[in-house]
Structure formats: C-alpha cells, structure tokens
Amino acid sequence: MFRIIGKRLVEVVLFVLFVTFCSFLFLRLAPGDPALTILNVDELNVSQEQVEVLREDMGFNDPLIVQYGKWLLDFIRLDFGNSYITNQPVSEMLMTGLPATLELTIGSLIVMLIVAIPLGSLSALYKGSWIDHVSRYFSIIGAAVPSFWLGLIFIDMFAVRLNWFPTMGRDSLLSLVLPAVTLGLAIAGVYVRLLRSSLLDSLGQEFVRAARARGIAEKRIFFSHAFRYSLPPVITVFGVSLGSLIGGVVVVEVLFAYPGVGKLVVDSIRQRDYPLIQGYIVLMAAIVFVVNTLVDLSYRYVNPELRLKKGS
Amino acid sequence: MRKLWKQVIGLIGLVLLLAACTDNAGSEKDGKHLTFVYNFATNSLDPNVDSSYVPLRAGLTETLVQLNEETLTIEPWLAESWEGRNEGREWTITLREGVNFQNGEPMNAEAVKASLERSLKDNVAIQNALKIDSIEATDDMTLQVTNTQAFPEFISELVNPNVSIIDVEAGDFVNNPIGTGPFKLESFTPGSKLELVRNEDYWDEKAKLDSVTFSFNEDANARSLALESGDADVVFRPEVESIESLEAKDGIKVESTETFRVHQMTMNMQREALQDVNVRKAVDALIDRDKIADSVLLGYAQPAKGPFPESLPFAPSYSEHETGSDLAKEYLEKAGYSLEDGKMQKDGEPLTLTMLTYSARADLPLIAQIFQSDAKKIGIDVELRQIEIPEEYMAANRDWDLATYSNLTAPRGDAGYYLNATYHPDGALNFSGADEPELTKIIDELNVTVDADKRAELAEAAANYVDEHQINSFVIYPDTLVAYDETKVKNWVTTRSEYYMITNKLDVK
What global pTM score does this model have? Predict the structure, then answer.
C-alpha cells in the first residue's frame, strides 16, 4: 500500500506540472485581457498607453514560459498569488468556498446512492419487468436533461409552488436539498444502468451458481456475493466521472447561488482573473487525484480477488 | 450490507430531522426586513477595490459626492462643498460636520485623506481616473487636493463607488469594511449574501428598515422565481422573457428605467468602404431601431439618437434621423454604388461587410441578425462573426467593418469619460479609429474646462460632430428592469446610475 502511495506521489508531481502548464497555456492563448478588466475600461477613461504600461507591469508581455516559471516558483512556495480583481490571496478565497462545494458534492452523492442502489439492484433482479423499464427511462431522461433545467423545474415546483425549500443561498440544510437532488439525479442515471449490468454479470458468475447449489438464501447471495462483486466497475467509473461531477457542481452552484468554488471560478473566468482560475485548476486536480487514489485502494477491499492476485 | 442500509436510512432520517429543526432560510426576521437579489455575486466587500460596488449599493458606504438621479448633476454627500482652481488642477473640499463611521470614529479630513490614499494605492484604475498628485488635510474638515494635470471633471469622478470613504484603521476591508452609510454589516457570506442592520448613529435621517438581506444570484430565471416564491422582495434584472408572467401575478410590479447605456454600432473607419461618410450614413439608415427595441428587448428600450440619452443635461438636441432601405440606397448611390444582379456594387465589387458581435450581452447578436437581414434586402451581404472579448479583439484586429458594442456613456454624470475613451485618438475604446482633428480639439478643450455650462456646450458639440460625420451609429438605450412585490415594498427607486439601491428611504408596508 505504501508503495502504491509512493508511486502515486511521483505521478502527482508530473500530473500537476502537466495540468497547470496546459491550463496556463490555454488561458493565455484564449482571448481576454485582465488588464482591461483591472483598469475598468467599461467605466473609466484610460488611454491605450496606460493599458500598455499595466500589461508590462503585470508581466503579460513576458514570454509565456517566463510567466509560467514565475507562477511555478510561487506555487512551490505554496503561494497561489492574489486575485487580480479582489487583491485577496487565492488560497484564502478557494478555502472559503470549498466547504460549500464539498457539502454539495457529498449531498448529491448521497442522493445518487439513494436512487441508484435500489433502482439498479431492482432492475437487475427483475430484469425485463416494469421496474427495469422505469429505470431505463429514468436513466435516459437523467442523461438527456441538463441539470440547470432540472434545477429550474425543482425551484418552480418545490420552492415557488409548494414553498418547502428556499430558492437559493446556503442558510440551512434545507437549502442543500434542492441543489443536491438536482445534481444527484443528474448523475444517478449513469450509475443505475452501470450497477444493473454489473449485477447481471455477477449474478451469472459461477460462484453465484455454486452458492445457489449450496442452498444459500437468495437474499444472502445477492447482498454478500453478487453485490460486492459488482462494485469495482462502478467505482472505477466513479473515479472517471468525477470530472463531470465537478462540472455539474459548477452549474448547480450558479443556479442556486450556492457560494462554493464553482461559482467563484465562473466569476473569475468572466473577469480573466488568471491566478484564481489557475488555483482552482490545481485544487480540482488535487481532488481528482486524491479520489482516484482512494478508488484504486478501495478495489483491494471491495474485491478480494484482486488482493489474492497481487499476493500470489 | 444490511448494516449499510440501516446506516444510510439513519443518515437520511437525521438529515430530515435537522432540516425540519432549522429555520426556513431566515425569512422570518423581527421588525421591518427586506430581501434584495442582485445579479452579480461578489467575493469581496473591499469598497475601494472591488468592481461589483456592492458596499455602496447596499448602503454600507458613501462617497464624497453623489449623482442626483433627477437632475443628473453632482451634489454634496460626505463633502459639503468644493471649489476648483487653476483649470481644475487644485481643489478645496469641505467635509460635512458630524459624520461618524459605523464604529464611532469621526469622519474628518485625516480619515478621508487616508481613505482616498488607500484607494489610490490599491486600485490602479482609480489612480488613473482621479489623477491625484497629493492630498493634504489643512484643518479638521478641509482637504486640499492637487491633481497631476488640469482636471475639471475631478469632482464628478468622486462619484465612483470605488472612492467610497471608509475607516482604513478598521482593518478587514474584504469581510467587514467600516463606512458611513445607513446600514451596518452584520454578516457576509462571500458569493452569497450580506446581512445588514440599521446604523443607529447615521448622520442623516435614519433608515426606515431594521434589516436587509442583500443576496446575489447570477441566474435571471432563478431571480424571477425567488420573487415569485416570496424569498425575495426586490430582484434586479429579472429575465426579460419572464416579465409577462411576473406582471400577471398579483402584487408584482416591474419597473423599467432608462440608464446611461447605449447599444451602438461601431464603424471601423479604417476600412475602405466605410471611409465614405455616405456608406456610414447608409448603414445608419438600415438600422431599424423600433423593430430592435420591440422584438429584441420586448419594448424595454428606447430608440437611440446619439451617444447620450436626451435627458442628460449635456445631451444635444439631436437632429431627427430618417431611416429606411430607400434612404440607405440613396446614400449608397451617392457613394457610387448601384444595384446589379441583386447586389450593391461599385466598380464591379459587391459591398460586403464583416460585422462583429459577442454573446456576453445577449441582445447584441440579435441586433446583428436583424441588421444582417435588413441589409440583405438591399443587396448587401453582412458576414457575422462571433467574438469573445470585444475590447481586445477590436483593438488588436482591423479586419472588420462593423461591430455591435455596448457602452456606458455617462456613468458619473459627465460626458468626459465616453468622449475621451471612444473618440480621442489615445482612447482605449476608440475602436472606430477616429482621428478627427476637429473633434479631438473639442475633447481637448473639454478636458480643461471647469464651468459646467461650458462643458455641456462642448459635450454637445462633440456629440453633434459624431452625429454629423456618423462616426458610430447608436441603436437603442436599453432599460434596467427591476421587479418587486408591490404589496410589501415601499419607496423603491430604480436609479439610472445603478449606484444607489438600498437607501435610508427604502421601506416595507
């Protein structure tokens, strides 16, 4: 296990270098100029000369590699720089928003589990029955409906008409419900189908037939053998789809005015606030990396077969 | 596995229980309370730096002078009076007596000096805008300001919310700035909302409301829904498409107010075809302003005649522009074009125009499309090109003829900003490439003129010059929309400057 973590650490360094350099490159190549935002040309009178002076001062005229090098040196000292727009340290701004984002992510994962586990299991157990059809439609709709639209429907139904939940903000657990359900349902569709097919696969395995032959109760076979065996592919896909989950969080945060890092980065992209965007990318890369490592480690516990293979 | 199920069910139960115990979004507050939803979120309340201007908008901070929304002139606020000398190079500012910061510290010349110096130091845009060389506190209530150059519109620049006066000794500017406004900050959740309470020691008439929630939501649909659900009492810029359904609801009022913004058609005068004023006039004649106001903004806009809305004191009395495709054809004929094979041609070359537009302002691409289809009817092909950041693209590339653009023309009640930025050869927004000696001379003269009437005359002269030579075309003045619960909210004023939102007058029934 320590060897895995050690190897992973080397990987993470290369990964961070790669991700930050690419994002740095794309950000700078993309149109947009923070100098214009900083000088507030929309409202204040500046001359082209002043724009040029600021560009020079901020180092925007330096070659890209020099700009990246400077950023990297600061980054190694754990200095993410200050936001161009608010002058605050980027790390502080990200840390203020992170709890809300984690809360929303965990909330939507819980919703996803509550929906996907029963629906996926039942549609595998009763393949071809009405519940299987329902789950298929659910998945198709879940994949096709954009989460901002779903969110608006929920706001209209549960906040405006029924008045059960607030429309926006983050005041109590009640304000978590609608955004978490919106995002949870949006991602649940994928996992329902995945769990179903994985379960069908494991139910057809020999060890299940052997267990049946030994007269073990169906219920026990399902929970202690088949279900556990079906988890690794689902967990693998989770690691992969983490990125799209983060993207979904961003959309939902904006819609529900949920003050997380996703909302923060949307604002900073609009304003070309490079240090903040770059900091966000590093943070997300770190999260994706940690989760993927956990996913890798978890195989060994979920599926004993892997542990045996490595040992032998 | 069974244990896992039990745990999951237990967890859900706990969540529901906790949710049931918590107060519903704090909507029930003691006393007179109002919830306002604004369309941009901010993560910092630093009044001197952040361009969201939320501290001023929320009634936390105030500036030395303010814009009178009715006369659209500058009037005293924290400053009582001012006097300029030497073409506006030097200024004496007398402060209002008896004003305290929200922490009880007196607002005096030293405190204002420190606050101004801080905004100059931390905000390069303000440094450029104010052009201050030095500030001196000559006595307890008097400041002497020396500018780096003759600068007659100095006082009007002090309207800028980034020049809010705060107690710089107080520290945490980002989370808790200490201003002089009618409301004090109780709590701030970055990106989400501010909770405000009445400032009992306010220097002017005390606020009528006990508390205010100033929250943010960038989604226009969600804002409209918040108003419908009763989570919000006033929402800024609800979605235009939802106005009809909002108005149909009992008690909801939608207010639309003209602003200082104009949607314009920028003409690239460096392109051969557009160097001929007749071609520019033809373009102008092709803009169907009424159709655009009605179909793109559903009537929440006024057809524009020039850069400055006519209600501004320095707006000229614009000549009536005739429009229509027949007139456009006439102008094109004057420029030597004729219609052949369904195309407007000159020397065998058909007239095709490349037009830039961008989606950050949703109205603009629609305006471009309407123009494109009207131009096609008289044989002009307009190629639309979507760009992302217009300021950057237009400054760096000259391969376009026309561009939709939106600009604030008098954000602080003075014409100096727009004329300098857009028509002076050095201006950062001079995308038409205007370099007209006569016009430059007028602007240069404006830049050293102190007297308000004389300034208005010069601004008019400049606007008229732009109009006569058709340097740019002006399409519409879009309105600002605000929707609120009429049965509850009292004294809400949709200001044209969009600076003053939560005031001491605002009340609930």
Answer: 0.82
